[in-house]
Amino acid sequence: AGPGQVAMYAGLQELGVANGEDLKETLTNCTEPLKAIEQFQTENGVLLPSLQSALPFLDLHGTPRLEFHQSVFDELREKLLERVSAIALEGKVEERYKKLEDLLEKSFSLVKMPSIQPVVMCVMKHLPKVPEKKLKLVMADKDLYKACAVEVKRQIWQDNQALFGDEVSPLLKQYILEKENILFSNDISVLHNFFSPSPKTRRQGEVVQKLTQMIGKNVKLYDMVLQFLRTLFLRTRNVHYCTLRAELLMSLHDLEISEICTVDPCHKFTWCLDACIREKFVDNKRARELQGFLDGVKKGQEQVLGDLSMILCDPFAINTLALSTIRHLQDLVGQDTLPRESPDLLLLLRMLSLGQGAWDMIDSQVFKEPKMEAELITKFLPMLMSFVVDDHTFNVDQKLPSEEKGPIPYPSTIPEAFTKFLQENRIACEIGLYYILHITKQRNKNAFLRLLPALVETFSDLAFSDIFLHLLTGNLTLLGDEFALEEFCTSLFDGFFLTACSRKENVHRHVLRLLLHLHHKVAPAKLESLQKALEPTKQSGEAVKELYNQLTEKLELRKPSPAEVTETPSMELPLPTVPTPTSR
């Protein structure tokens, strides 16, 4: 008998049930094999008196005994599985689990027998606490571990963090990869970008759903996943782990898993913020609610700020807070109000500050809200408002009948303080970048070219981060026609993108993405020099080379073939008339 045969009968002997090995032995040591087989069939067949007379009838129809026994077996197994599931729901809790434990004790020795295994697994699945000894046996056997239900695996995982980590790790890698693929997608659009999917849609993603299922209602496993996310965020500074932290909590919220939601102190805050992210705006009512949660952090519970800051560091939260800030600033211009006089604006800054300080807080384990720099509110934001005023003034000037002095030029200089803020203050930099995205989306070329030089050096190179460049490239499609102008291209490419291409591979990728989309709008001479400047080096990664090859192919297709070029003059001769079929 091969290993497969042995597995088929695994554990029968322990229960005193004859198996294939016993039959082999009987036949080897007997003088009359046929009689021995008949006796074996009688002793081990289905012991129903009425069946004895019916079996020869099946023989007449040519139905093998194996087929008959197999169908009886399958039928009985189905009934047993139904019965196990029913026992798990009936009677008093202690009694039903006692029945299942007894059943497990009797059947566990057959767990490796493929035909019986589903029954044993079903019994374990319905037991809230499988005996430790049995769990260890399952854990030690790769095939058994693979075959057991997630309900049993949870019981194994909760005491084996390393094993749980091995299961979760590939999912987390997949999640980060999916996010990066969206940021570097070749589809560039102002309508469909990284932030377009609603929170509810995002939570339906494969990784979030799998993690939600693995956790079930188990608080211990939920805590382990949060610990993994915190550790990875600290190790990599990758903000997508913060997104997953919020998505996971809200996925459990959708399923109404109160066992976990009620013990996560961030639940209500995240739920409220989730509604803001859905609307891409923090309205006054929700602002009050969020403020209430922040003000309600009691002494001795400051550690919750670490979790709240991670929820606020989620790019989807930052995006919502920054967009709301820009909207508030515009409203304040219309109301002749200063930023310091707007409590709603101050709250948005407070949350931005908490989100942007997440890494430092979790790293230092000092749980207190970061101090807001007064100059951000008294100098930087009024400066942004003055840019909005400059645009209004310029637009009004354009409409006035021009005097002899000629049209007033658009202001071309930027205050030195603006550039300094973008370099030294993280919150100022984030808001400044969102303001630039805002004017680009408004197709405001003048304002864009005026502020662009300030982006070459920013706090922690934020202007060269993937999320900003993803959004900027999308918004630049609205200024497509400007790419035909030398001045615009020189400012954008030579003055901004190319300053970082050689030292930052991601910037190289984003420029190539943009050109793949807009190459037909760029002036031919400029396109040629860009093609040279963007040629990959030996150090360039596969993604850059692939994008560059795609661009080269597209440009080759646009070039007229040499034959066409030489024949051009002959086109000036009168064309011979070709008779159409009907005129014959």
Automatic annotation (TrEMBL):
GO biological process terms on file: negative regulation of transcription elongation by RNA polymerase II
Region (Disordered): 558-584
Pfam family, one: COBRA1
Any one cellular-component term (Gene Ontology): NELF complex
Protein known as: NELFB factor
